[in-house]
Design brief:
The chain is an all-beta fold. It has no helices and ten strands. The termini are far apart.
Length: about 130
């Protein structure tokens, strides 16, 4: 088992957004080890809402087998749900029990909060424009 986190995407815009998970490497998913990263793939998030609605969705890095000594990674791409304009993408990585945001290509609109205390929490907020 690897190190987990609770992930949440918050949409502070009045219109809906869509999130897509890409570049997944060494992550548990689909309920394996309780992790459900796929919740955020091809997901529509209504205006002024969040996914999940309460708390955060547990995700877990895979740190065994072929993933031993390798970082676990994934990216979240955010689009405008109406016209599919790309709002931005954020790359995440977990290594040695620490999550990090390794890239945020639109810091003016996408705000990332990372807390690596006893249990990691990651929140990606799409700011109103």
């Amino acid at each position: 088992m690897g190190y987990g986190a609770f992930l949440k995407v918050v949409n502070n815009r009045s219109g809906a957004i869509s999130s897509f998970v890409t570049g997944v490497d060494c992550m548990y998913d689909n309920g394996d080890q309780g992790s459900n990263l796929s919740l955020f793939n091809n997901a529509n998030i209504a205006g002024n809402a969040s996914l999940p609605a309460n708390g955060g969705q547990y995700i877990e890095a895979k740190a065994s087998g072929s993933c031993f000594f390798r970082p676990s990674t994934f990216s979240l791409k955010i689009e405008n749900a109406d016209n599919h304009d790309i709002i931005g993408q954020v790359d995440f990585s977990e290594s040695e029990n620490n999550w990090s945001c390794t890239n945020n290509d639109n810091k003016d609109v996408l705000d990332v909060y990372l807390n690596n205390n006893d249990q990691a929490h990651i929140q990606l907020t799409v700011e109103a424009t």
